[in-house]
Description:
Elements: H1 2-24, E1 31-36, E2 40-45, E3 50-54, H2 59-62, H3 66-70, E4 73-75, E5 80-83, E6 88-91, H4 92-96, H5 105-120, H6 125-131
Antiparallel strand pairs: 1-2, 2-3, 4-5, 5-6
Amino acid sequence: MKTEAKNTDIDRDITSIMGFLVVSGMGSPTTESVTVTHDTLTVELSDGRSLSVPFAWFPHLVHATATERRSWRLIGRGRGIHWEKLDEDISIDGLMAGNASGESQASFKKWLTSRQSIRTGRASPRASARQR
């Protein structure tokens, strides 16, 4: 019995180590270039692959202007893409796994309300209530 427990512990330790390696993205390709069209994000990777995903996967990009969509920068040594004005970060590992945005509806609605307030120059209802 004790031997089984030790093997189980070792297996658990190896799994933890392997999980860390996968999460950290060691050995994974990095971004070489990013192309943004009117409805698609395309990423060219260092291993020769191209990934194209629709903006529908990322609501912040759907609600952005063309100028805002083009205003991105690589982060994490090419492991992610960041849009400062849109408060959007997309990981290359997430794209490779086929993951769309994991943002909650509540968070997105809050972002969208804030964005609309900035565009119209009016305070959001929540901000107006705080001012009273």
